[in-house]
């Protein structure tokens, strides 16, 4: 057993070796087109009779109703056997579930049309994970990979009534543990269980093709679940069926698109002639092409290639660069008599290039070029939306993706420790113009890549998912894994295993290179329709250095992670493409109330620590470290929550603006992380319930296509004007220096041109030049970009830490009035009100802006949308500022009508 430090310095076990289980696979082919119908069945579940968990949980071997798609945890919760796994500190008491073997049963009838057909198939879109499936008492298939689509032919095996499908799910821990424990040296895992269900020195997670985060992550709970997590489909056909439809872009520009429709048709046992028809509909639904062919199909799989040309194509663009037009392609075989003989997809026409040119600085660029246009990527990393993925609805995906777009993001990275998202995710991303960096599902640590059976399973999984998703124009990169190369090279994994067992270490590394350097690259080349492949994030695609600032993509965690540098260190780190950096914050009060009583809400209380996964519950110490550096010590839990959000927002703003100001050297900034898997503390900017943290409001400003980056570092403020739009802009830059009471010390104004798709540095101003002798603690500089009387972008620079500024409490005057179909919150303050937070508590209300600094003499109206009436809203309204929080011992002015907060 060996131990090694992670990037954050936590101690985790790391090395495991195993001979991979060879499992019998009856049939598993690529994910096809979605024309089968979900199996209509009555589902139930139970603990497998004889299971050891029955001793402590008697009676669970009787059948109870189950939900499919679903999971054993949610079924147990619905049956009233367990409480809500997200509430309180529930995890320790629920780990037995992951140690049990569970059985699912479906009873179903089959209609006459289906029964009459010559062929039938059951398709399992998601089995989690070690599953033995039988149909009407006879074995059907065995599965060992939750990320794959499993298919089994059931020709002649179905009855009109009383069919029974059974699926036994074996505990992944118990299945894999003996082999992992037998390894003399282990390979790196991720987060060891603190609950005793799995030995800390023999973690099985990286040997299972199951979402890695189910074993616990630093933002989410450990629930080693099982079940039928995606739909089961039954399909039937006679002579032939369509098994795949795709559109390859051969050439594409403004004038002309040359495409090839790739159609895969499976023919039964005898060769036969078939008619094939393909229609192409333009974004308005008008047919622009029809291809008809009479073809001879040979038994088995037939690959057809049908060329299509489109003049003046309407190309798909990321948001901010153009429209998100999509074409529809429909194919039919033999008149489309069964569902299986029809296929349809929606796709966008665009080209993608990952441009990596050597440059004058001695490094190499890293930029996404879409339709020939380099795009600065602005966005965040996405983690799973639930501990139990079947619970994620399309509405939920839309909510968080819409939030991303509303915050002016144009790229999301689907991080590798979860699952391949549902088609709905990519549909919405296509529609919204969000580019997707798609990891393969490897979250960290190391895999048994040296095992050919393991690699074969991954290749099959990759093929399934690339084929399933490749028509989505949003996907612009397939990336092998998250942080595995850097962990091996930089965190000591490689070195320590080499010291312990050089031959095994070499084998592990070669397995890594085979899997991520060769196998997955080949799948993407064969199936990915031209989308580039990148072997790991961060990396330089297997070059010597893995996490380099001069080339490749970068994860930067010296802020927040060890050595926990101050946020200004972000200004000294200038990578080519920042794919991860982050700061934590707690979600708002109403979200915390969902899992902890007010009595439990203590910074170091057990329920709060159970929802703070960083450093096994000690993350609040890291949060306090950052809060104290800039803001001082919070006096209550509520203030701690508020200050965590202010700190997160202001810190990330600094980094993101610096990245943007470094364009074109830097061409991307994706912070960690967009969303949450459950209600708890994390790096997210949108919480589990969809509430925006302060960061998300800031993101809308710092990611806006036009923005001002005024970044003060070591006494100098560097001013860059950012314009991601495709045309240049003329504006006025106004710089005002004020004191906290609104007195203007001086002002200057200049005409500026913001070049298109560029950052233009316009000034470097020393504190002496800006302050001209004024007290730094009492002063602020406001940088405004104006067109006519309209301020199109603004950034405020301070010269002292908030805790040293004379910020008064109770300054903000507010008035809430009804106006048409919404409300207006009128705000003004006689002195600087920093980090104003508007909160309506449990009253459902949406504020159009929040988390901003209210300048003295600059009143602001904020639109509030709510179904609640005016008096309820007025009663619920709370305003909080840094002045209130840091200096509330100062008596507030007597005439302040706004209630003091939290
Ligand atoms: C990143 C990710 C995750 C992790 C996050 C916060 O590096 O890749 O593994 O959750 O950091 O620690």
TrEMBL record:
Keywords: Disulfide bond, Glycoprotein, Glycosidase, Hydrolase, Secreted, Signal
Reaction catalysis annotation: Hydrolysis of terminal, non-reducing beta-D-mannose residues in beta-D-mannosides
Domain Beta-mannosidase-like galactose-binding intervals: 61-230
Pathway assignment: Glycan metabolism; N-glycan degradation
Domain Mannosidase Ig/CBM-like: residue ranges: 718-804
Keyword Glycoprotein attached: yes
Subcellular location: Secreted
Origin: domain of life: Bacteria
Signal sequence region: 1-36
Top-level enzyme category: hydrolase
GO molecular function annotations of the record: hydrolase activity
UniProt cross-references to InterPro entries, sorted A to Z: Beta-gal/glucu_dom_sf (IPR036156), Beta-mannosidase-like_N2 (IPR054593), Beta-mannosidase_GH2 (IPR050887), Beta-mannosidase_Ig (IPR041625), Galactose-bd-like_sf (IPR008979), GH (IPR017853), Glyco_hydro_2_cat (IPR006103), Ig-like_fold (IPR013783)
Listed Pfam families: Glyco_hydro_2, Glyco_hydro_2_C, Glyco_hydro_2_N2, Ig_mannosidase, Mannosidase_ig
Domain Glycoside hydrolase family 2 immunoglobulin-like beta-sandwich: 241-350
Domain Beta-mannosidase Ig-fold intervals: 811-885
Domain Glycoside hydrolase family 2 catalytic intervals: 367-484
Record-listed E.C. numbers: 3.2.1.25
Subunit structure: Monomer. Homodimer.
Similarity comment text for this entry: Belongs to the glycosyl hydrolase 2 family. Beta-mannosidase B subfamily.
Summary of the function given for this chain in its UniProt record: Exoglycosidase that cleaves the single beta-linked mannose residue from the non-reducing end of all N-linked glycoprotein oligosaccharides.
The protein, known as: Beta-mannosidase
Organism: Stenotrophomonas capsici
